[in-house]
Amino acid sequence: MERRMFLRSLIALFAWPAAPSRSFATDASPTDYPPIHKSEADWRALLEPARYRVLFEEDTERPFTSPLNNEKHAGTFVCAACFLPLFSSKNKFDSGTGWPSFTQPIDTAHIGMKKDFKLVLPRTEYHCARCGGHQGHVFDDGPAPRGERWCNNGLALVFVAEGDALPALRT
Length: 171
Description:
The chain is an alpha+beta fold. 18% of the residues lie in helices and 23% in strands. The protein contains three helices and nine strands.
């Protein structure tokens, strides 16, 4: 029985339709927020261990553990590593998955994407385009009109309430 399940999974992997490639149009130039490169030691010195694991080792926090799941105030969600603004509270919704979810990023130039095969079937992983910090995965089961669910690790984000100054970008 296990062999049969393995073979079915293998067939499904190769028969699975490729996710549509997401090409984003944007007015932002890549030089607006040039990439930053820090050593592992530098990032570890700046971040709590759990944040470091999520952002730079692609760990995933346990579902329903992030206080950002219940964040309902107006504001901006920024990358916890470099403070690049990634999501607006206007696009946050409760997906029921246990992780903060959004319908779209603030600016697609702030997001980098790649295919992730860690769970065998392909998923689209996204990260901060500036520091490379792993944020989460985007799925096509979100609400209308875009149908996207940007499922983010809460530890990968910092919330800045509307009216508060955004933190200066780390260099």
